[in-house]
Amino acid sequence: MSYHIRTKEDYDKNYLHSVERKNQFWEEIAKEFTWFQPWKKLMDCNMREAKFNWFQGAKTNISFNCIDRHLNSIGDQTAIIFEPNLPSEKAIHISYNELHQKVCKMANLLIDMGIGKGDRVALYLPMIPELAVSVLACARIGAIHSVIFAGFSSGALAARINDASCKMVITADGSFRGNKTIDLKGIVDEALLECPCVESVLVAERTMTQVRMKNNRDFFLAPLLEKASTNHEAVKMDAEDPLFILYTSGSTGKPKGMVHSTAGYMVYTAYTFNNVFAYEKNDIYWCTADIGWITGHSYIVYGPLLNGATTIMFEGVPSYPNPGRFWEIVEKFKVNQFYTAPTAIRSLAKESIDYVNKYDLSSLKVIGTVGEPINEEAWQWYHKNIGKEKCPIVDTWWQTETGGILISPLPHISPQIPTFATNPLPGIEPVLMDENGLELNENNTVGKLCIKEPWPSIARTIWGDHKRYIETYFSAFPGYYFTGDGAKRNDNGMYRITGRVDDVIIVSGHNLGTAPIEDAINEHPNVAESAIVGFPHDIKGNALYGFVTLKEGAEKAVQLESEINALISEKIGPIAKLDRIQFTSGLPKTRSGKIMRRILRKIAEGDFSNFGDISTLLNPEVVEEIKNGKK
Ligand code: WT7
Looking at the domain assignment, is residue 141 inside a domain? Predict the structure, then answer.
């Protein structure tokens, strides 16, 4: 790829170029792709109104660029390696040619089932090849995919299906995760009781468990695919046509359907994949994330395939059948780039080092992390034991909203400073803001992290709610994109992300809003009110601490804690369960009735030192009670 940055001078030159001649910079990168029609204007954006237009007037198709574009040169090369949950089950290697056939068949099937450009299709699938194929088939026909992580409960699934009025759901009979089998189809059936918009359900068979099939609505996927044709011409998409919706949590109970569009997302994910992982031809790349999250969209499917890479899809979990599973896979496929989350690193670092040392990891060239700040200890363990002190670590900072990596070291170019995401990629201009909305220009400073200029893969809107999009990201600092994160810039201008500054808590790398969890708890008939805060946790990074006030006269029965967690599991999913629950007679509130989370956060962290002035609270006496009852 001609856009590969190889040296520090290269980076400096590209960065300067990207800032001074933005249009020219992106045009040169975009030339690598196939366009059915060229753009008339490179971009036209307005940060205040959150209007983003990139490659205006151009027509392309990202699925075509991921697959068809490579068929002449590398058609026989493996595109996707599927590694099943159980190590004894055989891996599947899918070449670019085979992927093309599978995606064309699926595209034709979708069309047959009445799905067309602009229709929304919900994908609720395990990490099996059908998931990647469905994503690419939707993109190929211009249907908007909404991948919903297959660990979400039926209620959370229904809310997401309805929010985007999905016409179809693609799911599986069940999924394997470690030693568990999850009844995905049963969860879908329950969700669909509340989803009149869904006309059809396609069911992949993975666990071969008995499922209920509703007449004229539910169809097994395999026999239909068998009959479908392998000829399909990719739909010519406008540059700004929506590509997908992906939900993320926010500070209200309603999940935000972040909308990404076609051309800008394509150019940016391809560019960043290539540079951040220093991907070279024939490398084997593995990102351990699930395609249910943005990491999987951008850096398992789109980014790697756009670069003609070989990308591994892993169905299982890090600890099954034993904590050596990741390293076994690295050895098995001679993985060159390995990308995972700090929470996985921390949990594996707790295990015997024999699980690592048993395997040959010498194929590794670059190792990466994403999802939350990585602590120094985990960074050092990763560096020493996995990277053997020779592989650069790329600590990649980005968000569902940003579409791709914005701040990250580049291998062998950026300095290796533990816990620092270091430098912005070309085209990205981070700034730190003070409380008054002024840019902090000096180094060695901390502030709220904003991005100054638009970049191609910025989310275009929140599905159905552009006003909320503007309010959430473009109002706190007008003219800037506000990330919701705090950051530090050191003496050399390198960035370290310190964490969220809003009501979002990152647990095991998953972005959880406090509001939906509180809503779930408050549905318990005995609960009057609740507040969730995060507290530091060895493995998860943060864990959830719930302060719960019961209704007058309600009994603090022993099973209440498990009932509350069961409710959370049911409404959101097990990932949002609370580690600690404390019952209190009230929550500290301001005179205007706002819960003072700052105080609760300190108590949950075990820091009783300085609560600031609590005399202005409506109910200062409750603070003492909560302190004494801390779990
Ligand atoms: C939030 C976004 C981006 C894919 C996975 C998460 C935190 C992400 C880092 C990092 C420190 C990080 C931020 C961000 N985060 N990567 N390298 N260092 N924090 O996507 O669920 O949209 O969450 O994850 O707080 O805002 P997401």
Answer: yes
